[in-house]
Specification:
The protein is mostly helical. It has two domains: 2-87, no CATH class; 144-198, no CATH class. Helices cover 57% and strands 6% of the residues. The protein has seven helices and four strands. The chain has helices at residues 31-44, 46-60, 62-90, 92-105, 107-123, 125-139, 176-183, and strands at residues 2-3, 10-11, 158-161, 172-175. The chain has a two-stranded antiparallel sheet. A two-stranded antiparallel ribbon has the order 3-4. The longest helix has 29 residues, at 62-90. The protein starts with a strand and ends in a 15-residue tail after the last helix.
């Protein structure tokens, strides 16, 4: 047991950080008090610390930081994707509203979207033919359009998602947010097949 000089409480040695300079090999204050002190110091000198990290530390340790981040990403990839998916779907209404407000308030976005679409069609003309064939099949009734999302059940902004671009008749019906979530890899597509397609 050891007494913390800050909170004056007797605590097990495991509750203290290691310190080679100390006789007992432990810091004079406990982990809880040390974390609180570090947080207070960081808030007080936040701008200075962040400036140092940007201008000095990150530049001098760029390769080490990138490698550590890569390892952490590989180690926690599935967990982080799951958290991202949960946050995305919990805040779907807020996300949708913000996107709509940004779209309506910025005419340049619509022009940029048109340019991207033209460039996309030039890069992959076969996809444009694919979509035309898909739309024709919908218009002719060969593909039955569902009125709700097959993932979340929403009935707003239903779109067709194609797991395989070689088969325009294989369609999964998703709301716009779920569709975006699929393509941004926030969520794996459920094994749903449209049995009503012909």
């Amino acid at each position: 047991m050891k007494k913390c000089v800050t909170c004056k409480k007797e605590k097990p040695l495991e509750e203290f950080y290691n310190d080679k300079r100390a006789k007992d090999g432990k810091t004079f204050d406990c982990k809880e008090c040390r974390r609180a002190a570090n947080k207070k110091t960081h808030e007080k000198h936040k701008e200075k610390i962040n400036a140092y990290r940007r201008e000095v530390y990150y530049k001098e340790n760029k390769e080490t930081i990138n490698e550590r981040n890569r390892q952490n990403y590989e180690k926690n990839r599935e967990r982080d994707l799951q958290k991202s998916a949960e946050w995305y779907y919990e805040n779907r209404d807020i996300i949708s509203q913000k996107r709509k407000e940004k779209w309506d308030s910025n005419p340049e976005l619509k022009e940029k979207a048109k340019v991207r679409r033209r460039e996309y069609d030039k890069k992959d003309p076969w996809k444009r033919k694919f979509y035309n064939k898909y739309r024709l099949a919908v218009a002719q009734g060969k593909i039955k359009v569902m009125d709700k999302c097959q993932l979340c059940g929403s009935k707003e902004n239903i779109e067709g998602h194609h797991p395989d671009y070689k088969d325009p008749y294989n369609v999964t019906w998703l709301c716009r947010l779920c569709h975006r979530g699929i393509h941004s890899k926030r969520m794996g597509l459920h094994p749903i097949s449209n049995k009503n397609n012909s």
